[in-house]
């Protein structure tokens, strides 16, 4: 008949039921993101254990809603039971190689939510610039930012990011990468970085953080005390990648220290010495930590609940690294095949899609230690002009 | 618009706060623009032989920009606007200068593809602005292709009715005129490309019997190949269609395509095979292709237009008029192709090393910058026949969401190569100027992507 509606009873309400309240808290690695969605005639029901699952279910629900040629919104009858395979699904942004204005970060958080990402790995400072405005050490950004007025993240900016993320069920894990990748820390913290030498004289250039001075550990302790308080997530990313030993080797005081400690010519031992002390500091602040794979590769003694971030895609196949890391009993995060900053012509999304994170030799217990992965968008060639189309 | 580019949106140039006690500095009050020719060209269209040379003298109190034609004045104005800089106190400064400038190559183009993805008008116009900032002077508008036909034809409305992605993905006659005028005001020629006989799947939707039906044995398969070269109706259609195109687009040249013709469909069609036999072409389908192309070239010539073609048309030995421009695009030993084309007496433009849609990680602008177009074996006379080049941004993976950052500032490297002298090749110097120029484009509303690590005082919004 002409007047017959092709659609059923119009639905006007999605009922959201959350078993365990917790809207005021922060998401964590253990958060439950499972949900159930029931769509039938006259009834739309979304139920989840925790609010984080409700957020995921809401995203799914919003993707099920279609619109026909007449402009009517409709949804198919459906039953969905859903939960994530991996609990750590992250995205790395680099705000040191290029400053990213707040709105670019917030926009990225929105799109992360559309794609059910739940970790924002904020690689906030590095060699080229230090945009993080520290309360304890204001000189760091004053001297180290590209422009201390316009290219910084104030305490308020940082809180805005954390809260915006929280409302989308996204954890913010800050990375203050040391002892390498710290050139921008130097101007605002004189004496922190190792002075490099040319023969007997300082060359005027600087290298990684100086691991032999007590002042270094005082500084690091104070800074991370602040960072631990500012960023509510249990985990901090401590970096530890690509430490270039040349400068340390050139410095006579460091060479003397090496001799004193019996490290011989093995500078990995010096790197470990620094990292271990750093990890102790972080632990005493009640935080857990994630480190890049070199920390593991170089035999640093780390706590058993350390998460190792696998990123190298060169000499060893990353699958082998995943096997080694998990075999040693550590949890692993995979990023190696997902360096989205390494652009190439064509539909490269397929290569990223075809990665199977658990494709490595190992026991089921090992495989369980892979908690997820992260797509990385390093910033050498990326800023707000091209971030969004390059990432999505 | 140049006033705004130099001094920003809302303000009048104000006197900067000079340190107290400073003596009065020389001031530039005026830039006088003098166009010397009897016919400056302001109401006309730019063309291949337009004069783009200019002479700029910056001295107090009045700077003078002299050019033969208005097109040179536009180039000089762009240069002048780049000389003006702002100091830390907000004063605008310009150094005393004397510049005598002209382009090395006359054809400096950008190819945009609006068939693989529709590009909204705004995106095309913004790109024309960016082109002007980089002294490009040709927009090669690859307007239709296999995937979609967004050009709304007056004589054949069905072409876009049936061939465009949707009603919202169309360029109306008004849209087209807007692009042409916006370009003209910037000294940019608009050369449309209606690529045939290949790359024409979308034409078949709105023009029945235009494309060749493919066969499997004795049965038509239901799919179609290139334009059908054996039917009179094809040439009747093309005659009428190109009459429209010739009147809609004022430039002296039309690009007729002629690339990548796949012969398999022609080979499968019994009528085509019969035609080949009758014409004595044997099994050489390149002869059939040339037969078709020659007829199209003659049609377009009859409308007093010159034409550009992709290199296959030359390679397959079609009969070309002497003023044909051959576009060399195949990257396999393009120097050899340039020798062949110019050796045969034809004008050439180079696109092969400048396919900017082929993105890769890192500072690839350097490889575009390092191309020396005249590095091919040939006489002085031959080298004169290379009139320029084009940076191409094919649209398979490009639309308005990523066009600007993908094209700029990488295309700027091509722009300099085509304008500046042969010996301007220092990469370190170019890097400094390119990063500065990129920040300048940001200030002017072009979302050019970063060259490398760093920042601009004025970042993109």
UniProtKB/TrEMBL annotation, chain A:
GO terms for biological process: carbohydrate metabolic process; ganglioside catabolic process; glycosaminoglycan metabolic process. The keyword Signal applies. Hydrolyzes the non-reducing end N-acetyl-D-hexosamine and/or sulfated N-acetyl-D-hexosamine of glycoconjugates, such as the oligosaccharide moieties from proteins and neutral glycolipids, or from certain mucopolysaccharides. The isozyme S is as active as the isozyme A on the anionic bis-sulfated glycans, the chondroitin-6-sulfate trisaccharide (C6S-3), and the dermatan sulfate pentasaccharide, and the sulfated glycosphingolipid SM2. The isozyme B does not hydrolyze each of these substrates, however hydrolyzes efficiently neutral oligosaccharide. InterPro entries: Beta_hexosaminidase_sua/sub, GH, Glyco_hydro_20_cat, Hex-like_dom2, HEX_eukaryotic_N. The gene is Hexa. Belongs to the glycosyl hydrolase 20 family. It is an enzyme of class 3 (hydrolase). Residues 28-64 form the Beta-hexosaminidase eukaryotic type N-terminal domain. This is Beta-hexosaminidase subunit alpha. There are 3 beta-hexosaminidase isozymes: isozyme A (hexosaminidase A) is a heterodimer composed of one subunit alpha and one subunit beta (chain A and B); isozyme B (hexosaminidase B) is a homodimer of two beta subunits (two chains A and B); isozyme S (hexosaminidase S) is a homodimer of two alpha subunits. The composition of the dimer (isozyme A versus isozyme S) has a significant effect on the substrate specificity of the alpha subunit active site. One of its GO terms (cellular component) is lysosome. It catalyses: a ganglioside GM2 + H2O = a ganglioside GM3 + N-acetyl-beta-D-galactosamine; beta-D-GalNAc-(1->4)-alpha-L-IdoA-(1->3)-beta-D-GalNAc-4-sulfate-(1->4)-alpha-L-IdoA-(1->3)-D-GalNAc-4-sulfate + H2O = alpha-L-IdoA-(1->3)-beta-D-GalNAc-4-sulfate-(1->4)-alpha-L-IdoA-(1->3)-D-GalNAc-4-sulfate + N-acetyl-D-galactosamine; N-acetyl-beta-D-galactosaminyl-(1->4)-beta-D-3-sulfogalactosyl-(1->4)-beta-D-glucosyl-(1<->1')-ceramide + H2O = a beta-D-3-sulfogalactosyl-(1->4)-beta-D-glucosyl-(1<->1')-ceramide + N-acetyl-beta-D-galactosamine; a ganglioside GM2 (d18:1(4E)) + H2O = a ganglioside GM3 (d18:1(4E)) + N-acetyl-beta-D-galactosamine. The keyword Iron-sulfur does not apply. It is found in: Lysosome. Its EC number is 3.2.1.52. Residues 86-392 form the Glycoside hydrolase family 20 catalytic domain. It comes from the Eukaryota. GO terms for molecular function: beta-N-acetylhexosaminidase activity. Pfam families: Glyco_hydro_20, Glycohydro_20b2. Keywords: Disulfide bond, Glycoprotein, Glycosidase, Hydrolase, Lipid metabolism, Lysosome, Signal, Zymogen. The active site is at 242 (proton donor).
From TrEMBL, chain B:
It is found in: Cytoplasmic vesicle, Secretory vesicle, Cortical granule; Lysosome. Residues 105-421 form the Glycoside hydrolase family 20 catalytic domain. Its EC number is 3.2.1.52. One of its GO terms (molecular function) is beta-N-acetylhexosaminidase activity. Pfam families: Glyco_hydro_20 (PF00728), Glycohydro_20b2 (PF14845). GO terms for cellular component: cortical granule; lysosome; membrane. It comes from the Eukaryota. CDD domains: GH20_HexA_HexB-like (cd06562). The active site is at residue 260. GO terms for biological process: carbohydrate metabolic process; ganglioside catabolic process; glycosaminoglycan metabolic process. Residues 1-83 form the Beta-hexosaminidase eukaryotic type N-terminal domain. It catalyses: Hydrolysis of terminal non-reducing N-acetyl-D-hexosamine residues in N-acetyl-beta-D-hexosaminides; N-acetyl-beta-D-6-sulfogalactosaminyl-(1->4)-alpha-L-iduronyl-(1->3)-N-acetyl-D-6-sulfogalactosamine + H2O = alpha-L-iduronyl-(1->3)-N-acetyl-D-6-sulfogalactosamine + N-acetyl-D-6-sulfogalactosamine; N-acetyl-beta-D-galactosaminyl-(1->4)-beta-D-3-sulfogalactosyl-(1->4)-beta-D-glucosyl-(1<->1')-ceramide + H2O = a beta-D-3-sulfogalactosyl-(1->4)-beta-D-glucosyl-(1<->1')-ceramide + N-acetyl-beta-D-galactosamine; a ganglioside GM2 (d18:1(4E)) + H2O = a ganglioside GM3 (d18:1(4E)) + N-acetyl-beta-D-galactosamine. Keywords: Cytoplasmic vesicle, Disulfide bond, Glycoprotein, Glycosidase, Hydrolase, Lipid metabolism, Lysosome, Signal. InterPro entries: Beta_hexosaminidase_sua/sub, GH, Glyco_hydro_20_cat, Hex-like_dom2, HEX_eukaryotic_N. Belongs to the glycosyl hydrolase 20 family. Hydrolyzes the non-reducing end N-acetyl-D-hexosamine and/or sulfated N-acetyl-D-hexosamine of glycoconjugates, such as the oligosaccharide moieties from proteins and neutral glycolipids, or from certain mucopolysaccharides. The isozyme B does not hydrolyze each of these substrates, however hydrolyzes efficiently neutral oligosaccharide. Only the isozyme A is responsible for the degradation of GM2 gangliosides in the presence of GM2A. During fertilization is responsible, at least in part, for the zona block to polyspermy. There are 3 forms of beta-hexosaminidase: hexosaminidase A is a heterodimer composed of one subunit alpha and one subunit beta (chain A and B); hexosaminidase B is a homodimer of two beta subunits (two chains A and B); hexosaminidase S is a homodimer of two alpha subunits. The composition of the dimer (isozyme A versus isozyme S) has a significant effect on the substrate specificity of the alpha subunit active site. This is Beta-hexosaminidase subunit beta. It comes from Psophia crepitans (common trumpeter). The gene is Hexb.
